[in-house]
Design a protein that fits this description.
Strand content: 5-15%
Mean pLDDT: 82
Strand order of the largest sheet: 1-2-3-4-6-5
Low-confidence stretches: 1-9, 50-55, 242-256
Radius of gyration: 21 Å
Shape: globular
Amino acid sequence: MAKINKKIADGLFVELFSDNRRFLELYNALSGQHLKLENTEIEDYVIKDTIYRTLKNDVCKLVNGTLVVLIEHQSTINKNMPLRCLLYISRVYEMLVPKRERYYRNLRKIPRPEFYVLYTGIDEIDEYDLLKLSDAFDFPESDYYTSPKELKKIFQLELNVPVINVKPGKNLKILENCNTLKEYSELIEKIHNLLQENDNREEVFKEAVKWGLQNGLLKGYLEQAVTEVINMLIAEYSYEEDVAAQREEAFAEGEITGAQKKAVETAKKLLSMNLSVEQVSEATGLPLEKVQRLTEELQNKTNA
């Protein structure tokens, strides 16, 4: 199979904010800092599998010794995000700390993590929310504590994930301090609005990008990457809306056979976009062997 196109695999959010200048602009807006690119150490940390979906929507960078994870979230807020972040950051630490050093007697310092979930979806949510890993702990509250003081003793493991609503009109200070995020948010909002009237996504994306160009959004970037942006949006929304919605609908109706058929159809669509066997398997729930066979079938049809 052809090598996956980085732009299509990553998604527009990651493509924009993987750039260190844009990333630092956004991080400063979120953290209230005033870091300058010329005197800030920034290093990328890429995890093969992402924390929320197969198509990448996260950026992870080491900034002056702090691990910063930015996550875009367009669907209904996922309450399991703290758990996913815990698994994600554990893998990053595995990359950072060699196995031998984990057994040293002396304390091995590790970077402090910061997580930011940026919400750009269609739901109306508060401007700010905080998801906690402890909310997922499975125990009857009455059996373990009777006051907040007692509660603090119980939670020996905690991970907080702030959810920040960055839709147009929300958290204006952050948007004012990061023009790239402001314009990106406006473009995504335009897409959501157009999709309410037109279910032909390719037409919608082309119209939205044209609108963005006319209104000077993401100036310079959109002008140079019109086709790539449209392809990224097609890939993103194909997974976000097609895969998730089809699987949810099929299993909700109890149509296991129908769900499997839909999963195969979706797998073929994603394979045609040059997504890897592993990514398609994770997205559809199909076994790797099944996806590999589908890949071979598609290749045979192409070569016939």
